Amino acid sequence: MKSAVETLNPTRVRLTVEVPFEELKDSLDAAYKKINEQVTVKGFRKGKIPARVIDQRFGRGAVLEEAVNDALPKFYTEAVNEGELNVLGQPEVDIKELKDGELLSFTAEVDIRPVIEIPDYSGIEVTVDAVDVSDEDVDKSVDELRERFASTNPVERAAADGDVVTIDLEAKVDGEVLEDGVASAVQYTIGSGELLDGIDEAVTGLEAGGEATFTSQLKGGTAEGKDAEVSVKVTQVAARELPDLDDEFAQMASEFDTLEELKADSRKRLSSMKQYDQATQAQERVLDELLKLAEVPIPEKLLEDEIKTRKHNLEHHQLGQMGLDLPKYLEIQGKTEEEFDEETKEQAVKGIKTQFILDELVNKEKLNVNQEELTEHLMRRAQSSGMSPDQFAQAVVEGGQVPMLVGEVARGKALAVVVESAKVTDTNGEVVDLEDEETDETDESAETVEASSDETETATEADAKTDAPAADKPADAKNEG
User: Fold this and answer.
1) Which residues fall in a compositionally biased region of kind Acidic residues (predicted)?
2) β-strands 103-112, 125-128: how paired?
3) Distance of alpha carbon 281 from alpha carbon 103, whole angstroms
4) Which of 406, 280, 417 is nearest to 361 (CA)?
5) Could you read off the pLDDT of 381-397 as tens digits, one per residue?
C-alpha cells in the first residue's frame, strides 16, 4: 500500500491511498463467505457455493463492493498511522479507481488537530474579587437560617406582605373555567413571587372570606401563555413569626451552644465559599488570557458539529426539562435568534480552543492522571448529575466515556500549571496565593475547563476513532477487468 498526504489547510488534509489488488485477498475471501451465508443457490449446500457461481449469479461487482467496504477502515488507519496524523472525526472517503485484479485507489479528507505553539504564559496577570466577609454578610446568613425556623399563626386581620394566606383559585379563559384552572387550599407567601403575576396586589388587604379578581398570563397548563381572569378567595391569613436571635435559637438551629459561635461558624463558612469563588474566578480569567495568547485554527467541520451539539442539548435536554422551547427561551433571555447563534458559536470556539491548548500542554508537561484523581473527579461528577457514584461509574464505563473523564482531569491539571505561574491579585491589591486555600485546585480547574468546553463528546473526544465509514458507491465500482 502507498499513501500520500496533502495539506488542504492547517486543520484538514487529503489522504491519497493506492492498494495493490493482492492486499484485498482477505477482504475478498470475507466477502464471498458473507454472501455465502446470506444467499441460497439450488444444487449447492448453504455456505458451500463456489466463488465463480456467486460471480455469475450475483455479479463480481457486488463482491468487490463488499470487499472494499470491509477493507477501507484498515487501509485508512494504516495511512493515518503512516502519515502520523492526529485526526478528528470521520473522513469523507471517495473511491477513485477500482480495477479488478489490479488496483484500488481512494482519497479520504479528514480534519486534523492543528499544530499549536504553546505561548509563554509566565507573564499572565489577572485581578479577582477580594475575600471580604462583612458583618452584614454574616447577619444575612443567620437571618436566612432564622427564616427556615419561622412559624405561622392564624390572625384576624387583613393580609399584608410576608403573610401566608390560604386561598382558593379559579381561572377562566374567554369566560370558560379551565379544567386545570381550579385549586383549593393553596398556601402562598405574599411577596414571594412564586404564583401568578398580580396575585400579591389582589390578596393584600383582604381578610379571611375576602375575594378578588385579577387578570394574569398563565405560566403553565393547558392554556399556557394566555391571559386568564382569575378569581381568588382568601380562607385564612397567617402571620409568620421568627424566633428570637439568642443562644436558644443557636441551640435549636445548629450544633452550637451560643449565638456568637453560630455567627463565627457562618463567617468561616462564607469565607470558604468566597475563597472557592475566588479560585474559580482566577482560573477562568487565567484561561481567558491564555486563549488570547495562543493562535488556534479551528476545523470548520468540527466547529459546525459542536454548534449543532450544543443547540441540540439545549433544546432537547435542558429546555425540555424546564418545559420551554427555544423561541420561549429567547423571549425570556431577550435575545434574537441571530444573537443566540453568534453566542453559541463563540462558546463553541472557546470550548474547542480550550481543549486543543490544554491537551497540547498536557503532552508538553507530560501530565498523567492517577486513579485517586480520577476517582475524586468521578465522585464530583456523580454528585452534580444526581446519581450515586456506583451508578455514574457504571454509566461512564458502559458508555465508553472513561477517556473523556481522564481528559477532563488532565486538562484541569494543565490549567492548574498555568494558574500557578500567573500573578493573581485581588481588588484590594493583595497577591492571592491559591495554594494556601483549602480547596482542590486540580479538581476546581477540571470544573472550570468542563464549564468552558461544555464537555459534550465532539470529535475532539474521538481522536482515536479512525475507522472509515463504508465508501460512497461510485457508478464505476464494477468489474472493470
Assistant:
1) 432-460
2) unpaired
3) 59
4) 417
5) 888 888 888 999 999 99
Helices H, strands E: what count in the chain? 15, 11
Are the C-beta atoms of 242 and 233 separated by less than 8 Å?
no
- 328 Cβ partners below 8 Å, 6+ apart? none
* Rounded CA separation 372/158 (Å): 61
Question: Alpha carbon of 471 to those of 71, 76, 89, 335, 467: distances in Å?
Answer: 10, 11, 15, 43, 11
Give 198's DSSP letter.
Answer: T
Highest mean pLDDT among 59-73, 210-224, 446-460: 210-224
Identity of residue 310: R
> What are the grid coordinates assigned to 117, written together?
505553539
pLDDT recorded at residue 343: 95
CA distance 227 to 168: 19
Which set of grid coordinates corresponds to residue 413?
491539571
Residue 17 has pLDDT above 80, yes or no: yes
192: DSSP letter: S
| Angle at 160 (CA atoms; ends 156, 162), nearest 5 degrees | 110
With a cut of 60, say whether residue 359 has pLDDT above it. yes
Residue 421 has φ and ψ, to the nearest 5°, of -90, -10
Are 37 and 47 a contacting pair, CB within 8 Å? yes
Are the C-beta atoms of 290 and 449 separated by less than 8 Å? no
Instruction: Find the length of the chain.
Output: 481
* Mean pLDDT for all residues in the chain: 86
| Spatial separation of the C-alpha atoms in residues 25 and 37, rounded to whole Å | 19
pLDDT tens digit string along 73-88?
A: 899 999 999 999 999 9
Q: CA nearest 76: which of 97, 52, 106?
A: 106
Q: pTM, whole model, 2 decimals?
A: 0.73
Name residue, grid cell 384576624: 156
pLDDT digit string, tens, across residues 287-312: 999 999 999 999 988 999 999 999 99
Whether 424 and 282 have beta carbons less than 8 Å apart is answered as: yes
Q: What percent of the chain has pLDDT over 90?
A: 60
Q: Which of 205, 206, 201, 211 is nearest to 232 (CA)?
A: 211
Q: Which long-range contacts (CB under 8 A, 24 or more apart) does 309-318 make?
A: 309/456, 309/458, 310/344, 310/347, 310/348, 310/454, 310/456, 311/344, 313/454, 313/456
Instruction: Average the pLDDT over each of 90-94, 414-418, 461-465 and give the range with the smallest value.
Output: 461-465
pLDDT of amino acid 103: 82
8 Å CB contact between 101 and 21: yes
Q: Helix, strand or coil for residue 181?
A: strand
- Hey, what's the cell of 136? 452584614
